[in-house]
Amino acid sequence: MANFGHIKHYNANTGTGFIRPEDGEDPLPFRASEMIVEGEDPKEEIRVRYEIEKDRQGEPQAVRLQKA
């Protein structure tokens, strides 16, 4: 299922950040390697489409990010 939100924070040094979901849920972590368009760094405040999966610890994370 596709979800929409905005990149709230992105740290280029670690390649990680957080998405602020449009539905008001808690921010979700993501990795830059999950951006579908390779070679394009995430930028704060851009709107993205993503899916949610659980990480190894069972916590939700955003995956398969695309600009929306």
From TrEMBL:
Listed GO MF terms: nucleic acid binding
Domain of life: Bacteria
CSD domain sequence ranges: 2-67
SUPFAM superfamilies reported in the protein's UniProt record: Nucleic acid-binding proteins (SSF50249)
Annotated stretches, region: Disordered: 1-27
Protein's recorded name: Cold shock protein, CspA family
Phylogenetic classification of the source organism: Bacteria, Pseudomonadati, Pseudomonadota, Alphaproteobacteria, Sphingomonadales
